[in-house]
Here is the input.
Amino acid sequence: MKVLANRVSGTDGCVLALSVIVEVIKTSNLRNRYKYPFYGTDINTSTNQGGEWVKEDLNKQVARQILKDAKKDKLKYFINLEKTVKKEASEFKKYSRHILKTLSTSLSDQELINLYNSFILKYIYYYGPGALSFLYESIISDWLYASLSKKYHDNTTQVISQLLESSYQSFMIASEILLHQINKSSDIKRKNLVKEYLGKFFFINTNYLDAPVLNETQILEKAKTLKAHKDNFKAIKIKFKLSEDEKIMARLLKLSTPIRDQRKYINLIGGYLIFRFLDQALKKHKINRELAKRMFWFEFKDLIFNTEKLLTRLKKDSLSP
Here is the structure.
């Protein structure tokens, strides 16, 4: 039986948040040298389950071309991509503050729609470059593991861990560090740290299902319940020797760590803002929030100006088998 596409991931999510990803992949193809040969999604509105579909054989062809080019240009393309993604993640964070501030003002329906359209374009644009790592990263990781396991057997995972060691700090780790500081601080200092956390990580609870607004009580609870990371076990360093192909794969994967992390950073901020736009629309138009989350991202205008027509479709779809 011929496989037309491979389901490579599944996640909980609503149509509003997940439907944007197809546009992100289109933008990835426009902004990156390497293209997704195929990408598709499916979303079950009854279970709020979404899936991603690719053609693995075609993705492997792209991954082979990436490695071939990397040998020639010494990963210059991905070194530049890492810089671009980091820069644009920072820019998008600043832009998100502008959006949140504007949403707190009194906007007409048309002004809200115009702001939403402007935001969506920027979100997709900034998200696009980093989305490339989803195409090749797991494939090349598997190839590297398979190659190293022939030499290092049970020690392969440790060798890879050593190869990917980096000084780069994920925003998730930065979040945890600040939470630990909050938990250990005095009352006066704690208040300032909570304010700092809210400014830096307001989006941290975002997922494809929703994006709860973070408050001081929730931050203190997070800080209280967060378990400290204890590194009691120190792995013994293993000596290893890599082939040229293994060196290229390892360097690429190491570069991909910040690319993936900043991609997620942009994703969470963008998702948070999508749900804040939804909240603003629902303040003016009394619609069931869970039902509204079943609309596609491009139907935001209809939510405001063609409300009844959109609701009729959404209700009909929710009754479909």
Q: What stands out?
A: The radius of gyration is 22 Å. The CA atoms of residues 164 and 251 lie 8 Å apart. The mean pLDDT is 92.
